[in-house]
Amino acid sequence: MFKKKMLRQLPKFGQPLVLMMVVLILVLVPRKIVSDHTRLIWRGELTRASLSDLVSLIEHHPNQYNVIQFRNSPGASASAGTIIDQVEQLIQNYHLGTEARGACASACASVFLLGENRTLFPGVRGEPTYLMLHATRQNTTREVDYGYTEKVHRKIAARSEGKFPLALLDRIFDDKKGTADGELYIFRDPRPSTLGPQHVFVCASAVYAILDTCEPVRGISPSDLGIDIAN
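^ that's the sequence the OP posted. Answer follows.
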């Protein structure tokens, strides 16, 4: 009899514990998409799941948000072209600007540069803020998709009203191995180089931020490319 009473009582004590655990999980596990009044903050990798969350927030509050801020994003490990196209459509439909804090690489950089206005902020923890562009590859073969990459480049140049020249964007194809593994870096704050402090660097192979092996581009700042700087 005593055991039966205990068993019947367990759910009553267990429910508050379960609710507490759910609350702790929601608090401790960081969400990819969070909102800050008129700003949507997209943290980390760009995935189709986090894109779905972004779309849901915008569609449920169509007049609330006017900017997407990317924070320390390596880009998309899968479906990069699909994510770029869908975010571009959101930008056009809802007239969204873009911001970046920390690294914004690969698909993140492409989407950032398609914003109606584009702004680089300091890193959240003092880390450098920069964009890194490289060629888009096909999902199945992993071969460079020249046609799609060039189409995105034309859109970026158009969005900047010609300030971001195609000749500079296409420098990502100028790699030494002939595999289009070049990278283009744009830093919010100038970095040391053989030409003195510079903002823009072209890398002839996929070195990912080892700037000593990259070619500095003299005298080009983010503002020259149609990108704003803010604190």
